[in-house]
Write a structure and sequence with these properties.
CATH architecture of the largest domain: 3-Layer(aba) Sandwich
Distance between the termini: 28 Å
Largest sheet: 6 strands, parallel
CATH superfamily of the largest domain: Response regulator
Oligomer: single chain
Helix content: 25-40%
Strand order of the largest sheet: 2-1-3-4-5-11
Strand content: 15-25%
């Protein structure tokens, strides 16, 4: 579902142009915006951003878009997370962020239910919470939730898979989590398209991986051994597609098994241009961050009528045909 966004919001093109000026800030696990240019008498606000995992170009790009908008509004952004995409790893980070009493918490929950207690730590202290990317099941106490249109993106990926196989063949799917909302919605959308439009395409296995690319590579090696007829792989997140391509190359099957991914990390863009990756769904990462910063500011300054509670941004399918002309969707290195 796409939405009509108010003109006050940072456009994707502007966000990504500004991202280039702040890319160095994203390489650190703890980043802050420069001092506000606003009047010294104006109250200073701090946004604590906890991503689903660190070391992920998507979240680094969300952060940079958030920093650009926050700086323009006279706010500071702090950034802390875990390299593991898991509630057990994210919970102490969220609790630690809440203990520092930021003005607003922006978080990408790694589980829609398991992360609620930690997030409630902030809410119970009167700290507003905005989710980006992934979502919570109970949203009644949130200020806003901002995500990509995972159903739309999954439909784009599913249609590409079906056409690439000419309507018949086996594929395997990789995901980081069986519960994270983005992961579930993407898989469901792909499966729905295949079932309705390409019934001859069969998903022979869905495997869950850890965040590290090496985890996806190891699992794909096992999939190829168990299902030698697999001709396509769908990876729901950055490391899934990258690891799958490594496994395919190691097995000497490059060009015989195609991979469709999600996100536009530098590695994925390079693989797409090289021809190793057939397609990938790109999100408007910087704009998600910019919108979160704007919503945080509006909440803190009493402009709540300007906040749209649920925003779902449209995706684009990058292929070899359009990847060079769609650089505005590339994520930060």
């Amino acid at each position: 579902m796409s939405v009509n966004r108010p003109s006050r919001r940072l456009s994707l093109a502007a966000a990504l142009a500004a991202v280039a000026l702040t890319a160095a800030a994203c390489s650190s696990s703890s980043s802050t915006s420069p001092a506000s240019s606003k009047s010294p008498s104006a109250k200073h606000y701090t946004i604590a951003f906890v991503p689903g995992a660190t070391g992920v170009s998507f979240y680094d790009t969300v952060l940079s878009g958030m920093q650009v908008k926050a700086k323009a509004l006279g706010m500071t952004v702090t950034y802390q997370g875990s390299p593991d995409f898991a509630p057990s790893a994210q919970t102490p980070v969220v609790e630690g962020a809440c203990s520092k009493h930021p003005s607003v918490l922006v978080v990408a929950p790694t589980d829609p239910v398991a992360m609620a207690p930690a997030i409630n730590t902030c809410l119970n202290e009167g700290i507003p919470v905005i989710t980006v990317d992934t979502q919570l099941t109970n949203t009644s106490r949130l200020t806003a939730e901002i995500t990509t249109d995972n159903t739309e993106g999954g439909q784009l990926a599913g249609a590409f898979l079906g056409k690439e196989l000419h309507g018949s063949g086996q594929i395997a799917e990789l995901s980081l989590s069986p519960t994270a909302t983005t992961q579930v919605d993407r898989i469901d959308a792909v499966d729905s398209v295949l079932k309705s439009s390409y019934p001859g395409v069969k998903v022979v296995t869905l495997q869950y991986t850890q965040q590290a690319t090496s985890s996806s590579e190891s699992i794909v090696r096992s999939i190829l051994a168990a299902h030698p007829q697999v001709k396509g792989i769908f990876g729901v997140a950055e490391p899934n597609a990258e690891g799958a391509i490594d496994a395919i190359a190691a097995a000497g099957l490059t060009g015989k098994i195609f991979v469709v991914g999600w996100d536009a990390s530098p590695a994925e863009v390079a693989l797409l241009k090289k021809g190793s990756l057939s397609a990938t769904v790109a999100q408007q990462a910087a704009e998600e961050g910019a919108m979160a910063a704007q919503d945080a500011y509006d909440k803190l300054t009493g402009k709540t009528s300007a906040i749209t509670f649920h925003l779902s941004l449209p995706d684009v399918l990058l292929t070899s045909a359009n990847v060079s002309s769609e650089a505005k969707y590339y994520y930060l290195p």
